[in-house]
Amino acid sequence: MVVLRPDLTEEQRAAVLHDSDPGSRSYPLPWVERLHGDAEAMRRLAASSHPLIRRSVARARHLPPDVVERLAGDEDRVVQLFLAESCDDAPAAMLLEVWRWWDGSFSHPGRPRNHPNFPRSGLLRHADAPGGRMRRLALDDPQSTPADVARLARDPEAEVRHRAGEDPRLAPADAVRLLNDPAHHVRAAAVRSARLPARVLSALLHDRDTAHEAITNPSIPVPVLHRLLAASAAALHGRTSRPAVGR
Fold this sequence. Notes:
Shape: elongated
Mean pLDDT: 88
Distance between the termini: 71 Å
Largest sheet: none
Number of strands: 0
Strand content: under 5%
Number of helices: 15
Helix content: 40-55%
Order of helices and strands: HHHHHHHHHHHHHHH
């Protein structure tokens, strides 16, 4: 597109009519990427009238504080998303806002929640938030307790119960209860919980429907795991080497 040519001034660019679908997939413009280390160029381009240029600026690993502040308040949510995914200087408040509507992508799994600037303290206040996305953050707060885990393990939304099911502070009784959760991914988290009683885990290992998940439980002692794998390999070898029975 003419409007994205690097040799245009911003006045010329603003004078060109252009339509941009905010929901369309976009990629960083190579000529903007080549300028990521130029602070003055980033300041100029962060004020561009075209969202694709601002999105490309947001993909920089590091940006001057004033550029980060401008992009964090950009009216285009994708600019904020790209800043959360790519820029190590993204501010905590913006990261928390992006979390309300974005749960990570294949190219940047875990962002914004695993961003180094994502807030940790103060998250417990979201334990009573109306949305499950925010409630599940409560257990990331260093001030959260096993009682908070127990409470959220009974949350009406599956994503919150799943987060509680993955928590190492989950009570054994709650881990057992979540094995019967209506949501498959919650049940799977419970099967993998190190808090399961040994007798329950043993039963899961001997159940064909749950063995493939139970074998990944971190509480299985390594020697036991080796014996289970050896037994499984022997059983498989026996089936494949058995001669065919003629009619």
